[in-house]
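Session log. Operator J.P. requested a structure for one protein chain; no other inputs attached. Running the standard single-chain path with token output.
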Amino acid sequence: MKKVAFIFTQGPHGSSAGREGLDALLATSALTEDIGVFFMADGVFQLMPAQQPEKILARNYIATFGVLPLYDVDQCFVCTESLKARGLSAGHEWVLDVEPLSVAEIRGRLASYDVVMTF
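Structure written below.
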């Protein structure tokens, strides 16, 4: 079985990348159990609770990240440098349980994956 990593680098609004990545992640979870999810750059905003996408006429898919454990996706990580650059902290409440990692730690983890997809 191949190890698959999903990297979310885009914010939740203004692009369909997050929604498309989440759809791909959920579909892939039916094929393999070894999935890693990484939130970096503006992708850390995908984890923010209490977003109000309806105010900008967007669909609310953010909460769907919270169901990943039901799909046996439990290797989820957030970049500490990305959080800091955006005025957020690792202790923030997120829609998903994530382990904070430095960029160097993320690079090390990504090296062990067979396939890496970025959204």
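Operator note: The mean pLDDT is 88.
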